[in-house]
Write a structure and sequence with these properties.
The structure is a homodimer. Helices cover 51% and strands 11% of the residues of chain A. In chain A, helix 6 (155-167) links the parallel strand 8 and strand 9. Chain A folds into 2 domains: 7-175, Rossmann fold (3-Layer(aba) Sandwich); 179-292, Orthogonal Bundle (6-phosphogluconate dehydrogenase C-terminal fold). The first copy, chain A, is an alpha/beta fold. Chains A and B meet through helix 7, helix 8, helix 9, helix 10 and helix 11 of A and helix 7, helix 8, helix 9, helix 10 and helix 11 of B.
């Protein structure tokens, strides 16, 4: 691809820092500038070679950039869009790494002036670690990236943004923003809700000697609990921004939970067997898909 | 330890097969005999060197054994206790690998004659794989084993059973059967309930093109879903046998879930932040404990 002259990364943590590292290493950008609120963090990003330079001033940070990547929690997008609108240079592209897409797309499209184009992206990468220290140049390599064009999306901007994420090694596919939020509300946001509740519920339970029962945690709960390690602000924002679809998913979850509860209460071994075997079958399918990916 | 002359393994799957392999390799038994319902499975166990011999007849399988290890789903324990009572030789010890302990301890203590002693055990080992093919000689090595003596437990039988599990490399600790079922109802059984419900709920949701949203599963849900791969019959039985404590845990879980739901509905960012940070803190503690173990 033709490299961007200068990319500005807004929010240089795990996702932003990894995009910065990969952009420089894969020749997607000639130069990368970081923007954030904490100087020490930006200095660390520079020391790690993720960014060439940084600024604590947004206008200075985006000056001369032909691509801006928004990597802050999704709750900050509306105000960032407003702040970026008057200072981005004509022809500048904006993309993001947010885990929800309907609100970001709407907020940026409403705020940005003609000639500055937003193309929403959700690279499916990350994990329970966060911060620039966890950033790595191959975080995106081989992973999926969902691009969410709207009817207003500029085709050439879209082409360039897809090319950018592909240059980082991603398998790009596109879908409507609402469809994205519905799907990821189910497969990603709902599991976070469930695991936060699970960990908090169990942590409240005490042994006879007033210790926490959590000290008896086995491999199963540990595997689940890992997503409780993700960045809290990021997830609080996702819960607020994707309220509609998360609540819908929670309704489905509640129904499935009630079904198992009824099976246990009535000691209905046939119904329980069915629920468990169904989940078991879905798990096998997921494991099979995993091997194919 | 002084080896048992002959151990009979009742149910030669992942747990039973692994106990058999380790018993022979570590000199805990001079000879291991398998009992089960499916001849092909027992033949496979013999071929893999887990057992010296097998029988499809329970009386023949326990003849001459001074230790019997019950490795079948916990729902089968009551009837097995009745069948074993008249055929075990005087002085024979009985232990098990069941994930619930109050019912097994009660069922065996009621059924077994004087001079034949039961000592309940829950080796915290296993995983999403099951069957003799998944058995391995180090499954128990370094893992925890909870022994659940009652007021009726014979001290010498207890000493021998502890010695046996320690010989397999386990870190043995003891607690009352009810305390065990309360703790593992929370840290192990509840997560299974939650994950079965989670997987079944998500699997019902369809994309616009009528595909399953599960195909968008990321690392977080995959990590969680692994426990949905565990043996269905084993888990159905656990749900039925530990009904009391699982329902109590589910009440706690429901309360934690309702709290997060209320936070999302009211868009209460402070409350959500608190719930998420609390879970995050518990996760960090679990990760720390893990490194210490």
């Amino acid at each position: 691809m033709k490299p961007f002259e200068q990319i500005t990364i807004i929010g240089v943590g795990l996702l932003g820092g990894s995009a910065a590292l990969a952009s420089l290493e894969r020749g997607a950008a000639r130069r990368v500038v970081g923007f954030g609120r904490r100087r020490e963090n930006l200095e660390e990003a520079k020391r790690l070679g993720a960014i060439d330079d940084f600024s604590l001033d947004l206008e200075a940070a985006v000056k001369g950039s032909d691509l801006v990547i928004v990597c802050t929690p999704v709750g900050s997008f509306a105000s960032l869009a407003d702040r970026l609108a008057p200072i981005l240079e004509p022809g500048c592209l904006v993309t993001d790494v947010g885990s929800t897409k309907a609100a970001p797309v709407r907020e940026f499209e409403e705020a940005l002036p003609d000639g500055v184009h937003f193309v929403g992206a959700h690279p499916i990468a990350g994990g329970e670690k966060s911060g620039i220290q966890a950033a790595r140049n191959n975080l995106y390599d081989g992973a999926r990236c969902v691009i969410t064009p709207s009817q207003k999306t500029d085709p050439e901007a879209m082409r360039r943004v897809v090319e950018y994420w592909e240059c980082l090694g991603m398998r790009v596919e596109s879908m409507e923003p609402e469809e994205h939020d519905y799907i990821f509300g189910a497969v990603s946001h709902l599991p976070h809700v469930a695991v936060y509740a699970l960990v908090n519920a169990i942590a409240q339970m005490k042994t006879k000697t007033d210790g926490t029962v959590l000290s008896y945690t086995g491999a199963g709960l540990k595997d689940c609990a890992r997503i409780a390690g993700s960045d809290p602000t990021m997830w609080r924002d996702i819960f607020l921004v994707n309220k509609k679809w998360i609540l819908k998913s929670m309704d489905q979850f509640q129904a499935a939970l009630d079904e198992i509860r009824a099976g246990i209460e009535k000691e209905d071994s046939v119904a329980l067997d069915q629920s468990i075997r169904l989940a078991n079958k879905h798990y096998s399918q997921m494991a099979k898909d995993d091997r194919r990916n």
